[in-house]
TrEMBL record:
UniProt organism field: Tetranychus urticae
Annotated ranges, domain Protein kinase: 47-350
Key word Nucleotide-binding present: yes
Record-listed E.C. numbers: 2.7.11.1
InterPro entries membership: CK1_Ser-Thr_kinase (IPR050235), Kinase-like_dom_sf (IPR011009), Prot_kinase_dom (IPR000719), Protein_kinase_ATP_BS (IPR017441), Ser/Thr_kinase_AS (IPR008271)
GO molecular function: ATP binding; protein serine/threonine kinase activity
Start-end of Low complexity biased regions: 431-443
PROSITE patterns per the UniProt record, alphabetical: PROTEIN_KINASE_ATP, PROTEIN_KINASE_DOM, PROTEIN_KINASE_ST
Domain of life, source organism: Eukaryota
Listed name of the protein: non-specific serine/threonine protein kinase
Biased composition (Polar residues): 405-417
Sequence similarity: Belongs to the protein kinase superfamily.
Length: 449
């Protein structure tokens, strides 16, 4: 066999290297920046880039440190995107909402010990010269072009909760509820500025880097802090000019924004309000406690299927909870048959629709029922929601002190081997590939607010 020409091999490598980088959702990522690159923010402060630590749906994240610092500790992260990319939304949200004094004033006003809202540190634009190939042909010269970036600087945090779920499969009642209580505090804060987060999920919840450092990265022991990040999908639920709440109107352009398994029913049709965030949190709590055992997990690529499934189950909370928490933790999830026609033509075990399972965790039923009753423009009673969870923690025999930990769970039911659920009008619903515990990608991209 003839060996490939060295020149041809080099040409192939060069062609591959010149290909644009694409995120999982199809978004073209910005060209990477080298370690040591200096970025100058809008206040003329310089930042030194460290290594890239992640690529998201709309940009890349690097460690960073102030250029003026004598320390080699990279205690900050810089989120980098194209100059005209979606980071514009997130950057302006941080600038309006997440300034240090605003967070400090809120904590004092509410008498909180902690608020997991990342602080805005800096932002700016960055230009970088790049050599690109000129016209084809022998003797062609490289053309110098300018790559334009937008960047945001925030504090650096620790491990995300999805990585903890990958190890432990599910969270204990105290851990799930303690984290949820902290999220409710964050939601009340951002809602007070007229925004909703829209994309609460384990991968957007980060532990404290300082608390992890004390434990030498072992992720064992007791934690007390968790931060909600990634505000790239924030939505205004009130009009900027007059502060009037937006009406309940379907918007196909915004339909299905969010992460498939946790998107609220309102978001599935392009509507957004404060109750949307609370509903998203409901689905997260169910997933954390059950090990990802949600009825719609097996066909996440079909947004209409997911929407129908949520509409059905949120009107039948007993059936939903029985699906997530069957009497025996070792039993596989039953087929969620939602029509009498299908029920009479299948031998599959059906979810009990009337008698609550004894495995249903304390408090979760009340939390979901309150969320369902919320009206579109109604302000959630954040204190009441927290009280439901706090009382459940105490009734379970634990102390509601805001602390949580992670322990290995060997009896968690796995959603991977379970059959697909069915929804009305979808008797022969196609089964998607076996889902993992990792959240699905964002369904749609984001526009400027």
């Amino acid at each position: 066999m003839a060996k490939p020409s060295p020149k041809k091999g080099a040409a192939v490598k060069k062609a591959v290297a010149s290909q644009p980088r694409m995120a999982a959702n199809g978004y073209r990522l910005p060209d990477p920046l080298p370690v040591g690159e200096i970025l100058i923010d809008n206040t003329k402060k310089s930042w030194v880039l460290g290594e890239s630590i992640g690529v998201g749906g709309f940009g890349e994240i690097y460690t960073a440190r102030p250029a003026s610092s004598d320390s080699d500790d990279y205690d900050y992260v810089v989120k980098v995107d194209h100059n005209n990319g979606p980071l514009f939304n997130e950057m302006h949200f941080y600038y309006r909402v997440a300034k240090s004094d605003l967070i400090k004033d809120w904590v004092q006003k509410k008498g909180l010990k902690f608020l997991g809202m990342p602080k805005f540190i800096a932002s700016g634009l960055h230009d970088k010269q790049s050599n690109s190939a000129g016209s084809k042909g022998r003797g062609s010269k490289k053309v110098q072009s300018t790559l334009k970036y937008r960047f945001l600087v925030i504090p650096r945090f620790g491990t995300d909760l999805q990585k903890m779920l990958d190890v432990h499969e599910k969270f204990s009642l105290k851990t799930a509820y303690s984290i949820a209580i902290k999220i409710i505090d964050i939601l009340e804060f951002i809602h007070s500025f007229g925004y909703i987060h829209s994309d609460i999920k384990a991968s957007n919840l980060l532990l404290s880097l300082q608390e992890e450092s004390k434990k030498k990265g072992r992720n064992v022991g007791v934690f007390s802090e968790v931060y909600l990040v990634d505000f790239g999908l924030v939505e205004r639920y009130i009009f900027k000019d007059d502060g009037i709440h937006k009406k309940f109107e379907e918007d196909a352009r915004r339909a299905n924004n969010g992460t498939a398994e946790f998107t609220s029913r309102d978001a599935h049709i392009g509507c957004f309000s404060r109750r949307s965030d609370i509903e998203v949190l409901c689905y997260n709590i169910l997933s954390w406690l059950s090990g990802g055992r949600l009825p719609w997990m097996f066909n996440l690529k079909d947004s209409n299927y997911v929407k129908q499934c949520k509409n059905y189950y949120m009107e039948r909370t007993t059936e939903l909870l029985n699906y997530c928490f069957p009497p025996s933790s070792s039993s596989p999830p039953p087929v969620a048959v939602l029509t009498k026609k299908v029920e009479s033509n299948t031998n599959a075990r059906v979810v009990d629709r009337t008698k609550p399972s004894p495995s249903i965790p304390l408090g979760i039923s009340d939390f979901i029922k309150y969320t369902i009753k919320l009206k579109f423009e109604e302000e959630p009673d954040y204190a009441h929601l927290k009280s439901i969870l706090e009382k459940a923690i105490v009734k379970s025999g634990e102390k509601s002190d805001g602390k949580f930990s992670f322990t290995q769970t060997k009896t968690s039911p796995s959603p991977v081997k379970s059959p697909t659920a069915r929804v009305p009008g979808a008797v022969g619903a196609k089964r998607s590939s076996a889902p993992s515990l990792s959240p699905s990608p964002v369904l749609r991209s984001r526009r400027r607010i």
